[in-house]
Amino acid sequence: MKFPWKTALFLCLVAVSSAVAYQPALKYWQKRNLPTFRTMQTESGEITSVVNSTGRIEPVLSVHVGSFVSGPVIKLYVDHNDEVKKDDMLAEIDPRIYKANVDRDTAVLASRRADIIRVKARLQNAVNDEKRANGLFNDNPDFISATEIDKYKFARLALDAEIEVAEASIKQAQASLSNSEANLGYTKIKSPVDGIVIDRKINPGQTLAAQFQAPELFIIAPDMRKEMHIFASVDEADIGLIRIAKEAGEKVGFTVDAYPGELFDGVIWQIRLSPTITQNVVTYTVVVSTTNESFKLLPGMTADISFRIEQLKEVTKIPNAALRYYPKREHVRKEDRKILDGTETTEDDRQNAESQPADAKAKAGKKRRSRHVWIKEGDLLKAIKIETGISDYQFTELISGDIKADQELVIGLK
Asked: Structure pTM?
């Protein structure tokens, strides 16, 4: 049997070709399967740290005007959005019952005054009788007895007491008259302040019953064209930053849905100490003061607020996307894989956070500013340790670390 030399030659050629092409093919395949990273450059410039919240716009002061007396409303002098001055008439309650009470108490007072005149006349007569009796007794003791002298004396003392009773009755009648006059005055509902009527809660002909609780008739807001307040709810984790901003006098920017393209500003007026606790979430009310000369801000509007905490200029800024990126282990060089494995952390960092004392927790809080970012080194990624500062919605301040401006940082995979 002859050896198939042609087949052997073909197989040799195939083997040689495969050997020659193996290394280039392997390199091509490896290069083709290398990951392609998305990168973003660091920048140099200004960065502003803010705390965002939402709030409700309200007048600085809302005066609730009520009624002290009962009765049907016979007149209304103002409506919604009317501007009023102090002591302007707002409404009037039917005064007939209260006028009758004033007339009755006026007549009672006149009667009490007439009574005191009558008692004074009787007292003067008793005084004269006592004087004459004393004169007769002194000139001729046998003519009038001591018993009769006592009779005149105590008659005069009784009338003295009647005078005091009559004077007290006059004061009582005057008090009753003053009360009736005050009630009559309360039938005229007047504005206690200058302002704008932002709510009217009564209609003509409506009967008010003020026996148990004063009914609310109007709400008047003074100085709405000068100043408004925004009541924002801020989480307890951010309230320390808000206090720093208030002490520094930082401005507050906000927008409202009614004017989406317009930015308004204000200042932190007050941080209220009373917390609100809802499902173990603690928040504090922060009051922002803003001008309202254009009268665009109305009560009840919702404001999207940004409290400016700190502003720095000419700093190196790290993209927040680079801080959020967490690479796969096979994409990282060997010496940096311990960062992904967690073996780089210290013993203190591995302790259970709940078992740490307060000083250790405070120390751990400071370490949270220590982060890693990733740069390309050949075909793999290299970790660079940095310390961060303040942050905004897009960038974070670089405090320390081997990072320069315009350096490419990895933010993800294509």
From this structure: 0.69
* Residue of higher predicted confidence among 77 and 37: 77
Q: In total, how many domains does the chain have?
A: 3
Asked if residue 365 belongs to a domain, the reply is: yes
Last residue within a domain, chosen from 294, 313, 332: 313
Starting at the edge strand found earlier in the chain, the sheet holding 89-93 runs 188-190, 89-93, 71-76, 207-208
Classify residue 203: in a domain, yes or no: no
Quote the percentage of the chain above a pLDDT of 70: 82
Domain housing 283: 51-61+221-313
Tokens linked to 47: 């960065």
Residues 178 and 104 in one domain: yes
**Cα distance from N-terminal residue to C-terminal residue, the chain:** 61
